[in-house]
Amino acid sequence: MSFLDKIFGSNQLEHSQDKSFWKNIETENDLKVALESSFEQKVAIFKHSTRCHISKTVLKNFENQVINSDKKMDFYFLDLLAHRDLSNKIAEDFGITHQSPQLIVLENGKAVHNASHQSISLDLV
C-alpha cells in the first residue's frame, strides 16, 4: 500500500477481501436476486462511492456493526461508480432519491427504510 493510500484510502474494494457477508450487485440479475430474497428475509443494500472518504468511513462503521450483530438478513454491496446504471435503477424502482453513501432496506419487495451518510446504522433494520 502506498503512502497516499494509507492517508486517503485506496480505490480497491477492501470489503470483499475480509467481509464475507457482502453479496455484490454488479448486474440487473444481481439486483433481481436481492429483490427476490427480500420476500424471505430483510435485505440491506449499501451504495458506496469508492472515491469518497465519507462513504469509506461510513462503510467501515457499518461493517463493524454487522460483524458484531446477530441479525439474520442479506447484505448487498453496490459500487455506484462502477455501476451507476444500477444505482439509478434502484433510485427509480424504489422511488428513493440517490445519495452516497446510502443504505436501503428491502422487505417483501419494497423499500421500507433508507438512510444516507451518518444516519446509516444497522438499527434501521
What characteristics describe this protein?
125 residues; alpha/beta; Glutaredoxin; 5-stranded mixed sheet; 5 helices; 22% strand; globular
Task: Characterise this structure.
A hairpin with a 2-residue loop joins strand 4 (102-107) and strand 5 (110-116). The chain has 5 helices and 5 strands. The chain is α/β, with parallel strands linked by helices.
How many separate structural domains?
1
Structural class: alpha/beta
The total strand number stands at: 5
Radius of gyration: 14 Å
Mean pLDDT: 88
The tally of helices reads 5
CATH fold title: Glutaredoxin
Give the topology string: H per helix, E per strand: HHEHEHEHEE
The CATH homologous superfamily is called Glutaredoxin
Q: How much of the residues is beta strand, in percent?
A: 15-25%
Q: Within the largest sheet, what's the order of strands?
A: 1-3-2-4-5
Under the CATH scheme, which class?
Alpha Beta
Sheet with the most strands?
A: 5 strands, mixed
State the separation between the terminal residues, measured CA to CA: 35 Å
Q: Judging from the principal axes of the Cα atoms, what is the shape?
A: globular
| CATH architectural arrangement | 3-Layer(aba) Sandwich
